[in-house]
Design goal:
The protein is mainly alpha-helical. The chain is built from 13 helices and three strands.
Length: 293
Amino acid sequence: MMQLPKTLSRNGWTPQHLLMTALMVMLGIVATLDVWLDICKLMFAQEEFRHMLLVPPVALWLAWVRRARVRLCCPTGQLLGVLMIALGWTISSWGYYNGIEAFWHGGALLIVLGCFTCVVGVEIVIYFLPSFIALLFLIPAPGVIRTWLSVPMQGLVARGTQFVFEVVGVEVMRTGSLLSVNGMDVTISEACNGMQLVFALLLVSFCFAFSFPLRHYVRLLILLASPVSTLVCNIIRTVCAVWVYGHYEYASGAFHAVSGWVMLLVSFGLLLCMIRLLRWALVPVTRFTLVYD
C-alpha cells in the first residue's frame, strides 16, 4: 500500500485522498463531457485557441514549483467544493440556454474544480492559487473580445512592421493592414494574425511571473508589460513572415506553423531581459535579497 510522507500524514492526508481526488475529477469531466469535447474541437480546429494545449503543462508546472506548500495544507473546507459545483452548474446551464459560450465553458471548469475541492479542501486552492488561475485560459475567449483586440492589433503590427523595414532600408508600401514587399501583397491576417499569439503570450507572461519568488510589484509589472511584449513579438514575427512571403513564398506555410511557437521562447527571453534590467537598475526583484544582488 502506498505510504505518504509523515508530514502529510500528520496533517490528515491519506492515500485515499489521492484516489478520491482522481475519481471526483473524472466524474466532473464526465458530467460536463460535451463542454470539454467542444473545447477540444476548438483547440485543434482553430489556431487562435492552440494556446490551450499549453494550459495543463503550465498549471502543473506552477503547482510543482509550489510543491513544498503541501506540508502547510490540511484537507479541510470541502464544503466550498459543493458550493463551487452548484455555482458552476448554474453558470454553465445559464450560458448554454442563453447561447453564451464563455459561461457554458467557464461553468464546466468550475464544476471540475469544485469536484477537486470536495476532496482536498480549500487550503490547497489558496496555496496553489496560480495553478487554478492558469486553468482559466482553457475558457475560449468570446468572438467579441477577439475582434475587439485583433483590429487595433493588426493596425499596430502593420505600422511597426513598416517602420522596421524602413529602418533596415527595405522598401515597403502599406495600405491599412496590407503590406507590399518585393511586388508581393501580404495582409497582416495572412502573414501573422496577432490574435494567434495574444493569449499564448499572456499565458507565458503569467507563467513567468509566478514561477519565480518575485516581489508582488514585479509580478504586476510583468503582467502589465505583457501587451507590449505581445506587440513586440507580433512585429518580429510579422517582419520575418512578410520577408518570407515576399522572397520564398513556397516556405511560407512551414514558417507560419513554426514561428508561433518560436515567439513563445522570444517572449520568455524578453521577460528575462526585463528582470536583468531591473537588477541592473538595483531594483529589488526577489522577495529576499541575495548576496550577488
